[in-house]
């Protein structure tokens, strides 16, 4: 896609800030997520006998997704073109990318939905974690090797997603009910592609790149403990969120899947952004993100049954806290970086 992006960036005015391009692309994803939240909040709209999402929404989703993907590809080129590349731009770009994971997954989920012809909400929860783990692997590589190897499958997946949205608008969600080959349905293909990409491509390549750095004596962290530090907080987040859905008194994942996914994806992004800051500043990654301390208390309160009748309210409040905390963290980092650059 680089030839296409090279052509697009030439159209952009030189006064257009790269970070504004990054933010605009991200907001297209948020807008798509919001549209689908309105028309398919509980992921039932694509089921048989349900009121489906209007075709124009899928067309908008396809266009918005492609625009977001394109802007994500040209922001760095615009920075180099205008000699405005900064560490802040890198953090802003990859930080929003980490948050975008949950919007991608939740929006694609609406194509198949839940029910007999769709994917279960618990299955989608684990698929979300596959995507999140795939994302953090690349940044774990950079933390240990100093080089960011972006997964090549990203370009293919984004173009495919955009095309799927447009196809859905033209032929309707009913087209995805039919099997691809034999008894294999599109939902199965969707699941296999996500899981396969992790275990066949992303994970082996990450391990190989880290091993190559070790063999060449260029590994930045010599001990296994230090090398694995970036995984501590994500693993704890996974354990806490999985405990919540597994022991939920009200089966929260069935009642509020969209909000639960949003909470998990935002908390993950917060953890990942701190790892990215450590990469940029060549500092040691902290083993525990402070955000997970109150989350531990929330999960314990929920699974103990103390707030059984108010679990949904607790989820909404905690999700709002996580989002506001994440935004506050981002603003704080940007402010500190801006003040530092001004001082120099």
TrEMBL record:
Subcellular location per the Swiss-Prot or TrEMBL entry: Endoplasmic reticulum membrane
MF annotations from Gene Ontology: ethanolaminephosphotransferase activity; metal ion binding
Spans through the membrane: 20-41, 53-71, 91-112, 119-136, 156-177, 189-207, 227-247, 289-307, 314-331
Recorded topology in the membrane: Multi-pass membrane protein
Reaction(s) catalysed (UniProt annotation): 1-O-alkyl-2-acyl-sn-glycerol + CDP-ethanolamine = a 1-O-alkyl-2-acyl-sn-glycero-3-phosphoethanolamine + CMP + H(+); CDP-ethanolamine + a 1,2-diacyl-sn-glycerol = a 1,2-diacyl-sn-glycero-3-phosphoethanolamine + CMP + H(+)
Cofactor(s), by name: Mg(2+); Mn(2+)
Pathway(s) per entry: Lipid metabolism; Phospholipid metabolism; phosphatidylethanolamine biosynthesis; phosphatidylethanolamine from ethanolamine: step 3/3
GO terms for biological process, alphabetical: phosphatidylethanolamine biosynthetic process
Family recorded in the similarity comment: Belongs to the CDP-alcohol phosphatidyltransferase class-I family.
PANTHER family in the record: ETHANOLAMINEPHOSPHOTRANSFERASE, ETHANOLAMINEPHOSPHOTRANSFERASE 1
Role description: Ethanolaminephosphotransferase that catalyzes the transfer of phosphoethanolamine (PE) from CDP-ethanolamine to lipid acceptors, the final step in the synthesis of PE via the 'Kennedy' pathway. PE is the second most abundant phospholipid of membranes in mammals and is involved in various membrane-related cellular processes. The enzyme is critical for the synthesis of several PE species and also catalyzes the synthesis of plasmanyl-PE, a lipid required for proper myelination and neurodevelopment, from 1-alkyl-2-acylglycerol.
The protein, known as: Ethanolaminephosphotransferase 1
């Amino acid at each position: 896609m680089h030839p296409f992006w090279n052509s697009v960036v030439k159209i952009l005015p030189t006064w257009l800030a790269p970070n504004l391009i990054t933010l605009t692309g991200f907001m297209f994803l948020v807008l798509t997520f919001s549209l689908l939240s309105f028309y398919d909040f509980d992921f039932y709209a694509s089921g048989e006998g349900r009121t489906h999402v209007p075709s124009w929404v899928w067309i908008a989703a396809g266009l918005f997704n492609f625009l977001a993907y394109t802007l994500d590809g040209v922001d760095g080129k615009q920075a180099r073109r205008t000699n405005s590349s900064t560490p802040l731009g890198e953090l802003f770009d990859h930080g929003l990318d980490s948050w975008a994971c949950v919007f991608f997954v939740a929006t694609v989920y609406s194509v198949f939905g839940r029910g007999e012809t769709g994917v279960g909400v618990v299955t989608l929860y684990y698929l979300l974690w596959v995507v999140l783990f795939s994302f953090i692997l690349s940044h774990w590589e950079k933390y240990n090797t100093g080089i960011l190897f972006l997964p090549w499958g990203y370009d293919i997946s984004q173009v495919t997603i955009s095309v799927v949205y447009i196809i859905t608008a033209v032929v309707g969600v009913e087209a995805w009910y039919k099997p691809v080959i034999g008894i294999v349905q599109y939902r199965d293909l969707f699941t296999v592609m996500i899981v396969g990409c992790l275990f066949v491509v992303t994970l082996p390549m990450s391990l190989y790149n880290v091993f190559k750095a070790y063999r060449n004596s260029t590994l930045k962290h010599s001990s296994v403990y230090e090398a694995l530090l970036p995984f501590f907080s994500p693993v704890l987040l996974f354990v806490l969120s999985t405990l919540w859905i597994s022991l939920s008194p009200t089966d929260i994942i069935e009642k509020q899947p969209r909000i639960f996914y949003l909470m998990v994806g935002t908390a993950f992004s917060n953890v990942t952004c701190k790892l990215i800051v450590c990469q940029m500043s060549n500092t040691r990654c902290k083993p525990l993100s402070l955000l997970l301390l109150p989350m531990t208390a929330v999960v314990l309160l929920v699974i103990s049954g103390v707030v059984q009748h108010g679990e949904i309210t607790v989820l909404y409040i905690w999700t709002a806290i996580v989002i506001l905390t994440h935004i506050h963290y981002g603003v704080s980092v940007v402010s500190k970086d801006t003040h530092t650059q001004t001082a120099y």
